[in-house]
């Protein structure tokens, strides 16, 4: 148990899939609250569903957490390994009259539910074994262990996000703690693990709000037996919705954190910032660093309404962080994609060229894919293939301008963007054209495309030999 009033939060994903974007936000809120309060942030893998829990999913969750910089304190707890402890608590409740054995068969329960449905009653366990002696059951009959939940009165949770929420105890039934094979249920395992891990604040999606009332009944039963089982502070966060207002689902696009990283080229600091602002705010601040978030984060800043996921906003935020990012880091991140596009290794010199290109490439990029695509021209094999629009710029007039540019820049001793611009401007003035009219065929010949960084930056990055070689290739192709 936590001591000295220390705040302890936890993130408890089920490894039946990868780290969902909603789960990542929950983890972020828990991490920030713990760090802001000088407390502990714990990780628990809820792997009790053995049929669906997989090692690749566990690995992906841990990898996603590390990528987002959400480091956890202590060793990760694996729920399945604690099954004996969960059963021990159920046995304690059973021995002290706070739980009982239920021998109702599957057929009886199905009949009960059918009758309740026909009578338009809430479908819940009717307590048929609550006050009966186990001696009434046939010898050796299978049974489950159920919590003897209070039936009178009501429970109010002062939720830190939702406010005061009250449920009548009569609306809750006696939930199952141990199945007929002796294995613990999710509800039992969560309560026992939170207690044993010393969790003081349960921050999770508001789809768990109803569970909180059931779990409180179990917590209070154990507190009555042993003492030292305090109610946690609850904060149930509204779920994330898609742009259409519906609960976020696969049809809304990428959901796993790894998709935002690997397929969409999002930086972790951008995703962290976006998720933070998705349901939490601090005045009008939009760009919020990790340090600021840790300083500012409170549960009071979480809104009660669902937030809508907006991919465009995420991309815009990502563009900001790309512009702020270290050039060496960006070059390292895009290098694999650049190599894949080039179809060859580019070596240390190529990697250095990529790094030097970043200041010219990143102002226009909204993600790492843009950076990789924009840098592809640096490593293309000569003679360059032209896309259709670029080829259209190299008609007879375009070729004449290209030849004039080649002659002009071949005589430039200082191969810098400034000196090259002066030489090309002179060509444009001689031809009576605007600079753009000359830059267009030049860009096409140098990159094979109609978009690129500034054309004089392109010349400077490619260098004298490569630039003149690409121009010569294009002029030779027309003869």
TrEMBL record:
Pfam family, one: Anticodon_2
GO biological process: glutamyl-tRNA aminoacylation
Catalytic activity: tRNA(Glu) + L-glutamate + ATP = L-glutamyl-tRNA(Glu) + AMP + diphosphate
Biased composition (Basic and acidic residues): 115-135
Enzyme class: ligase
Region spans: Disordered: 115-137
Protein's UniProt keywords contain Nucleotide-binding: yes
Subcellular location: Cytoplasm
Main location: cytoplasm
Residue ranges of every copy of the Glutamyl/glutaminyl-tRNA synthetase class Ib catalytic domain listed in the record: 6-315
GO CC annotation: cytosol
Task performed by this protein: Catalyzes the attachment of glutamate to tRNA(Glu) in a two-step reaction: glutamate is first activated by ATP to form Glu-AMP and then transferred to the acceptor end of tRNA(Glu).
Protein name (record): Glutamate--tRNA ligase
Gene name tied to this protein: gltX
């Amino acid at each position: 148990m936590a001591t000295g009033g220390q705040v302890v939060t936890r993130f408890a994903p089920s490894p039946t899939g990868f780290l969902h974007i909603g789960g990542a936000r929950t983890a972020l809120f828990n991490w920030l609250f713990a760090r802001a309060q000088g407390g502990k942030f714990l990780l628990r893998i809820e792997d009790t569903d053995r049929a669906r829990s997989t090692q690749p999913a566990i690995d992906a969750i841990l990898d996603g957490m590390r990528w987002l910089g959400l480091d956890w304190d202590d060793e990760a707890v694996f729920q399945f390994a604690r099954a004996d402890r969960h059963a021990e608590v159920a046995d304690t409740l059973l021995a002290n009259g706070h739980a009982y054995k239920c021998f109702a068969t599957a057929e009886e329960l199905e009949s009960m539910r059918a009758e309740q449905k026909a009578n338009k009653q809430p479908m819940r366990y009717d307590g048929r074994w609550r006050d009966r002696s186990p001696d009434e059951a046939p010898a050796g009959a299978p049974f489950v262990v159920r919590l003897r939940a209070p039936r009178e009165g009501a429970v109010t949770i002062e939720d830190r996000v939702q406010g005061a929420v009250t449920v009548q105890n009569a609306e809750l039934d006696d939930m199952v703690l141990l199945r007929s094979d002796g294995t613990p249920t999710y509800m039992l395992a969560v309560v026992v693990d939170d207690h044993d891990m010393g969790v003081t604040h349960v921050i999770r999606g508001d789809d768990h709000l109803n569970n909180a009332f059931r779990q409180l009944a179990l917590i209070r039963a154990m507190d009555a037996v042993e003492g030292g089982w305090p109610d946690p502070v609850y904060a149930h966060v509204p779920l994330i919705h898609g742009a259409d207002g519906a609960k976020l689902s696969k049809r809304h696009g990428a959901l796993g954190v790894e998709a935002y990283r690997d397929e969409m080229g999002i930086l972790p600091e951008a995703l962290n910032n976006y998720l933070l602002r998705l349901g939490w705010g601090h005045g009008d601040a939009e760009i919020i660093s990790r340090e600021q978030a840790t300083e500012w984060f409170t549960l009071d800043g979480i809104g009660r309404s669902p937030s809508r996921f907006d991919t465009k906003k995420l991309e815009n935020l990502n563009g900001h962080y790309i512009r702020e990012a270290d050039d060496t880091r960006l070059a390292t991140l895009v290098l694999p994609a650049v190599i894949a596009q080039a179809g060859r290794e580019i070596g240390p010199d190529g990697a250095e060229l990529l790094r030097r290109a970043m200041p010219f490439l990143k102002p226009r990029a909204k993600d790492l894919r843009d950076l990789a695509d924009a840098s592809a021209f640096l490593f293309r094999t000569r003679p360059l293939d032209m896309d259709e629009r670029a080829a259209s710029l190299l008609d007879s007039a375009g070729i004449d301008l290209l030849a004039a540019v080649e002659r002009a820049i071949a005589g430039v001793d200082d191969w810098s963007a400034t000196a090259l611009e002066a030489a090309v401007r002179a060509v444009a003035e001689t031809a009576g054209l605007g600079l753009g009219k000359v830059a267009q065929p030049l860009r096409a010949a140098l990159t094979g495309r109609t978009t690129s960084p500034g054309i004089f930056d392109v010349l400077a990055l490619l260098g004298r030999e490569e630039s003149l070689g690409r121009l010569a290739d294009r002029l030779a192709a027309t003869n």
